[in-house]
């Protein structure tokens, strides 16, 4: 998804099947540069311990395509090698994505990302939950009308709705709210922006491996499916594992 096109409206809700896709482990294959991935030049610095391989997912909780790939990511997380360190970097391409980037980091701070994120994808894109979609819609209306003060108030309502929603799913709503307003939040959002620029990422979802390779579905690469994307990640991890020996 390109960064210039999306704010939240009902029009962006994915017409997804209510049944979870059956995801088979992809067959091993050797990914081809220019077809399955591109090189990151020069390679980016990673933030992992010696012997580990870093895999980053560039994503947004507000992106319907990221919701579509999520079951594949969850399947991959269950089988990834033990030395692979996985992290997500949220997009901030537009106000809606930026709001949900704050949500990502708040969930990360309270240790609830991998448990809550799939449910949040579901509530925003698969089975829309009015408890969230209604305040987001109100906020967007004020954004689009240029009502800055009203939009700021509506944004607070969105965060309050999110805190209640998170608490209803077993996380600590008060800690979530405190994390949303952490003094370090703006710094982290700035780092996310810088990471997207460093990797040349213009849309989500996408994946990088060890700071050297980037892969994403759609042009300019020739990947045909999310399954092939995750198989590409597997192939690139295998290349890095051999290099480290």
How does this model look, in words?
The structure is a single chain. Helix 1 (64-79) packs antiparallel against helix 3 (113-126). The protein has helices spanning 64-79, 95-109, 113-126, 130-144, 148-167, 173-180, 185-199, 226-244; strands at 38-39, 53-59, 84-90, 206-209, 213-215. The N and C termini lie far apart (37 Å). By secondary structure, it is α+β, with helices and mostly antiparallel strands. Mean pLDDT is 89; it is low at 1-19.
Give the assembly state of these chains.
single chain
- Biggest beta sheet attributes: 5 strands, mixed
Gross morphology is: globular
From N to C, what is the helix and strand string? Answer: EEHEHHHHHHEEH
Q: CATH H level: which superfamily?
A: Glutaredoxin
The tally of structural domains comes to 1
CATH architecture: 3-Layer(aba) Sandwich
CATH T-level topology: Glutaredoxin
SSE-based structural type: alpha+beta
Write the layout of secondary structure elements.
Elements: E1 38-39, E2 53-59, H1 64-79, E3 84-90, H2 95-109, H3 113-126, H4 130-144, H5 148-167, H6 173-180, H7 185-199, E4 206-209, E5 213-215, H8 226-244
What distinguishing features does this structure have?
245 residues, Glutaredoxin, 8 helices, 50% helix, 9% strand, disordered N terminus
In short:
This protein has eight helices and five strands. It has 245 residues and is of the alpha+beta class.
